[in-house]
């Protein structure tokens, strides 16, 4: 029986919701309370029932489900979903896959998700709602601020700082000591050798700023 394990609700029935639910099922310390979604399109996810839309949240809290995770990959949408969960009365614990590696002194903020084969180096710091995706590496002394996303296979070498809500694309590599500004976007496979200003988009090897889209 698993009734002695704390229950956690997953908000989001898309692809990232599936990844987070896989983490919950693999963890051993949690049991899934179900899945909710703003606009449900499936009846179940990995065998776990999709309970309905977010109108179910207050009733779930009243039933004793007091922990949840905003399983949404898009940074701004994840922050908004976390706000709705908190307003409904849910706590937002960090979720760490059992196949992830955490170095000594690493700190993980509330609502973070650290997926399978991710590595968080010694004394690295993750803020609230940070997503470190499958196989990503956040090396020693890195600081990743609130709600940033480190995509699959990306590598932050030592002492990198990533601003709030920045997006580091899949397979990107950030040189030691580089600062990525808040809200910046780093393209997939980019090699970032210098600081990136807030809100900028860079891509390529070496990474260069992309031109602003025409109005």
Short description:
The chain is α/β, with parallel strands linked by helices and 215 residues long. It has helices spanning 15-27, 57-62, 75-88, and strands at residues 7-11, 31-36, 44-45, 48-52, 68-70, 95-96, 101-102, 107-108, 113-114, 119-120, 125-126, 131-132, 137-138, 143-144, 149-150, 155-156, 161-162, 167-168, 173-174, 179-180, 185-186, 191-192, 201-203, 208-209. An eight-stranded mixed sheet has the order 6-9-12-15-18-21-23-24, covered by helices on one side. A six-stranded parallel sheet has the order 7-10-13-16-19-22, with no helix packed on it.
Write the layout of secondary structure elements.
Layout: E1 7-11, H1 15-27, E2 31-36, E3 44-45, E4 48-52, H2 57-62, E5 68-70, H3 75-88, E6 95-96, E7 101-102, E8 107-108, E9 113-114, E10 119-120, E11 125-126, E12 131-132, E13 137-138, E14 143-144, E15 149-150, E16 155-156, E17 161-162, E18 167-168, E19 173-174, E20 179-180, E21 185-186, E22 191-192, E23 201-203, E24 208-209
Parallel strand pairs: 1-2, 1-5, 2-4, 6-9, 7-10, 8-11, 9-12, 10-13, 11-14, 12-15, 13-16, 14-17, 15-18, 16-19, 17-20, 18-21, 19-22, 21-23
Antiparallel strand pairs: 3-4, 23-24
What does this structure look like?
The chain is an alpha/beta fold. The protein contains 3 helices and 24 strands. It has helices at 15-27, 57-62, 75-88; strands at residues 7-11, 31-36, 44-45, 48-52, 68-70, 95-96, 101-102, 107-108, 113-114, 119-120, 125-126, 131-132, 137-138, 143-144, 149-150, 155-156, 161-162, 167-168, 173-174, 179-180, 185-186, 191-192, 201-203, 208-209. It has an 8-stranded mixed sheet with strand order 6-9-12-15-18-21-23-24, covered by helices on one side. It has a 6-stranded parallel sheet with strand order 7-10-13-16-19-22, with no helix packed on it. α1 links the parallel β1 and β2. It is globular and about 50 Å long. The termini are far apart. 41% of the residues are buried. The model has no long low-confidence stretch (mean pLDDT 96). Keywords: Acyltransferase, Repeat, Transferase. Belongs to the transferase hexapeptide repeat family. InterPro entries: AcTrfase_PglD-like, Hexapep, Hexapep_transf_CS, PglD_N, Trans_hexapeptide_repeat, Trimer_LpxA-like_sf. This is NeuD/PglB/VioB family sugar acetyltransferase. It comes from Roseomonas alba.
């Amino acid at each position: 029986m698993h009734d002695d394990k704390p229950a956690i609700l997953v908000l989001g029935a898309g692809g990232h919701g599936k990844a987070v639910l896989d983490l919950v099922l693999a963890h051993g310390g949690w049991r899934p309370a179900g899945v909710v979604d703003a606009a449900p399109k499936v009846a179940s996810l990995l065998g776990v029932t999709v309970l309905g839309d977010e109108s179910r949240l207050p009733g779930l809290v009243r039933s004793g489900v007091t922990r949840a995770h905003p399983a949404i990959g898009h940074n701004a949408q994840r922050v908004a979903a976390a706000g709705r969960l908190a307003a409904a009365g849910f706590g937002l614990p960090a979720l760490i896959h059992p196949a992830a590696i955490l170095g000594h002194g690493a700190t993980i903020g509330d609502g973070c998700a650290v997926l399978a084969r991710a590595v968080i180096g010694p004394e690295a710091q993750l803020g609230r709602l940070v997503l470190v995706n499958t196989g990503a590496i956040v090396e020693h002394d890195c600081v990743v601020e609130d709600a940033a996303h480190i995509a699959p296979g990306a590598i932050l070498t030592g002492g990198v700082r990533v601003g709030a809500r920045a997006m580091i694309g899949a397979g990107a590599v950030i040189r030691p000591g580089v600062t990525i500004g808040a809200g910046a976007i780093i393209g997939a496979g980019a090699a970032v050798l210098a600081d990136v200003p807030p809100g900028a988009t860079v891509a390529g090897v070496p990474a260069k700023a992309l031109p602003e889209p025409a109005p």
